[in-house]
Amino acid sequence: MRILRRCLTSGLALGAVTIVAACGSSSSNSSTSKSGGGSATSAASSSGSASKATGSPVTIGTSLSLSGDFSADGQAFERGYKLWAADQNKAGGLLGHPVKLDVLSDASSPAQVVSNYQKLIGSNKDQLVFGPFSSLLTVPAARIAARYGYAFVEGAGGAPSVFGAGLHNVFDVSIPVKDNLVTFAQWVASLPPSKRPKTAAYVTVNDPFTQPQLPVAQKILQAAGVKTVLNKVFPAEVTDYTAIAGQVASAKPDAVLLGSVDVPTVSAFTHVFIQQHYQPKAFIATAGPDQGAQFIKAVGTGNENGIFVPNGWYGGFKKADSQQMVKEYIAQYGGDASGVNADVAEGYAVGQVLAQAVAATHGFNQQKIIAYLKSGVTLNSVQGPVKFDSLGENTAQKTQTFQWQNGNLVQTIPTDEPGATPPQYPKPPWQ
After folding, report:
1. Distance CA 169, CA 388 (A)
2. What residues form DSSP beta bridges with 62?
3. How far is 263 from 72, CA to CA, in rounded Å?
4. Would you tell me how many other CB atoms lie within 10 Å of the CB of residue 348?
5. What value does the mean pLDDT take over residues 382-404?
6. Interhelix angle for 366-373 vs 342-361, to 10°?
7. H and E: helices and strands count for the chain
8. Cystine design at 347: which of 77, 111, 285, 306 (Cβ 3.0–4.6 Å)?
9. What's the pLDDT score for residue 50?
10. Are 319 and 348 in contact (CB under 8 A)?
11. What is the CA radius of gyration of the chain?
12. Which tens digits make up the pLDDT trace of 170-214?
C-alpha cells in the first residue's frame, strides 16, 4: 500500500540519481548498498535469457519522491526498482541490453514531476519510463508520457482519478485503490446474520487514495443489511480529529471503516474511542496499522489487537519470486520480511511487467508495448497475476486483509488463503 514507512539513508538526496543497476551497484549520487544475495527466478526476471547482457545500455527513466511528503514511499520504490534492475541484468538484461536507471527526485511535487518526465523523455531520450509514487503525481506524469507516445507502467497510481483522466498509456500493476476494502466487506457480509454487524460508520480524509475505497465497501455492506449511521468526509488539512472521532463514538456503530493515510490519524481515532468507552466490534483503517512497532507505540501496546488493514502484498507472501526478492532485500538492506515495505514489491512488479512486454514485442517500440499490455494477456509479478482492462487497471488480483492479533500482524482475509489466520471478531477490548 501507499504507506509512509522507514526513511532510507541520507544519501538519497534531492537531485538527479543515475543508477547503473548491475549486481546491485549504484553511482556516487545514489545511496550505496551491499550487493543483493542470489538471483531472481526466471519468472521474476522475465528476460528469456540467462546470459550476460553485452549490448549497449537501455535507460529507464523515472521520477521518485526522494524528499517531501512521500519520501519514505518514493525511497522504497527506488529500492524496488533497483532490486529488479539488478536481477534483470543478472538474467541478461532486456534483450541483451544492460538496464540503467535514470532517477530524478520530484520532492513530492506535481509541478516537479512534470518537469522531470519532460527531461527524462524529451531531453535525456530515455528508451523506457517507470511511474512515480502516488496517484497525485501519476496523472500529470502520465500526461507527459502520453504526449511523447510512451507506455507508462506504474505501481502506485491506482485512484479513479488516474483511470478517469482519458489516458490510454497508463498501466497500474497493483490492485485498484477502490477495491482495497472489498475483501473485508465481503467477509463481513458473509457472517451469519446473528453475528454480522448491524450498523457501520464510514469516515475518510478527502484523499484520492482513501476516499474511493469507502463507497464500494459501503455498497456491499448495505446490501447485506448493515445500516449506515455515519458517512463523513473530512478535509486533508485537519490535524485535530477529536470532534470527528467523537461523532463516530457517539453513533456507536458496530463496525468502523476509516479512510486514513497515516499512523497519527488512526491513533487519534483510537484514543478518542478509548476515552469515550466506545468499543467497535470491527475496526479497519486503510493505512497506518501496517506500520509495525510505530503503530503499536502510537495506539498503545495491546490496543492494536483486532484492528484490520488492507494490503495487496506482504513480506511473507508465499510466492517464489516474491520470496526471492525479499531474501535479496534483506541481504542488501537488512531487517526481516515483515519490515519490507509493500512499495518495494510494487516497484519490482513494474519492472517485471515492462520486461515481459519488451520480451513479447521483441523491442522497445512504445506503441507495440502499449498494444501488448492492452491485449488481455495475463502477466506475472511478485504481487501476483497482472491483467489490464481497457483503462489500465489490474483486474487479476485480490486485496488481502490483515489483522493485529496478540501483538502480531497476520493475514486473515480471504480466509481460504493458504496460511490465513481466522479473524478475531468481535474485536478484543481496548487495553
Report:
1. 11
2. 103
3. 14
4. 32
5. 95
6. 110
7. 13, 13
8. 77
9. 53
10. no
11. 21
12. 999 999 999 999 999 999 999 999 999 999 999 999 988 899 999
Q: Assess whether pLDDT exceeds 70 at residue 47.
A: no
- Which pLDDT band, with edges at 50, 70 and 90, does 312 fall under? confident
Ranges assigned E (strand) in 130-274: 152-154, 170-172, 199-205, 227-234, 255-259
* Domain 16-177+317-373, architecture per CATH: 3-Layer(aba) Sandwich (3.40)
Please choose, from the candidates 89, 78, 80, 84, the residue with its C-alpha nearest in 3D space to the C-alpha of residue 30.
78
Residue 235: count other Cβ atoms within 10 Å of its Cβ: 8
- 23 neighbors 35 (Cβ within 8 angstroms): yes
The grid cell for 220 is 456491499
CATH 3.40.50.2300 range(s) for the chain read: 16-177+317-373, 179-312+399-413
421 phi/psi in degrees, rounded to 5 = -95, 135
The C-alpha cell at 184 is: 473485508
Sequence-ordered list of residues with C-beta below 8 angstroms from that of 334, at least 6 positions apart, any chain: none
> pTM for the complete prediction?
0.80
Identify the pLDDT of residue 336: 86
| CA count, 13 A, side-chain hemisphere, 179 | 13
**pLDDT at res. 353:** 98
Tell me, letter by letter, the H, E, C secondary structure of 372-404. HHCCCCCECCCCCCECECCCCCECCCCCEEEEE
Q: What is the CATH number of domain 179-312+399-413?
A: 3.40.50.2300
How many residues are given for the chain? 431
